[in-house]
Amino acid sequence: MVNNMNFQPADDFSLILFCIFSLTMFSLIIYFFRRANVSKAIQIGFAIYISIVIGLSASGLVQTHVLPLVPIIFLSVIALSICLAFSQSGTKIMNTYSLAALFGFMGFRLPLELILHHWAAIGTVPETMTWTGQNWDIVAGVFCLIGITIVNKSRVSALVIQLVTFALLINVLRVVVMSSPFPFSWGLSNPLQLVLYFPYVLIAPLFVGPAIFCHMVIFRKIFSK
Prior knowledge:
- By secondary structure, the chain is mainly alpha-helical.
- The chain has helices spanning 12-35, 40-58, 61-64, 66-85, 88-96, 99-105, 109-122, 137-147, 155-179, 203-224.
- The protein has one domain.
- The protein contains ten helices and no strands.
- The protein is globular.
């Protein structure tokens, strides 16, 4: 299926910017883990998981085996993020960081959406993946940054922002699935192929996964008060 599709790589500048962004995200995640005294086993496991995802994509295996590898990567990111959020490590993160810190961290969704918008303009991703299509996660990025100033003061405000931004994340997951080269998807002429190529595949474990994880931890923190 994928061999019959053309992939338009991003321009060098935006690709370098994305790589720097990804490295920054990885460093921040490790820093957050260490500051919360998350076990080294979890930190090492996270690095190994990312290495596996990179290896599958860089080797070309994901391109030649879209099914089942793309769904496996997609579902593993979701499952591992949720499991980690409700584990002892998630409890440590919840107890270490304030709601403002957790929402502030998810502010990365704003610059990520700007990159995706540029990639849509040059044909690297379909238009469905940006706010001119059906992905409005840029609003979540803005809300998360605004939330920094109010979520610690009002649990109601925190819950409202959480529900809005979480709904937008669920929508992103829907758009990703329906924009991908699956038999049941929208059948776009330029389907979403980021997970098939390195370094684009880093969006899954370094951005989507942490967003899911943070939302789960925020739910726990809000309702534990």
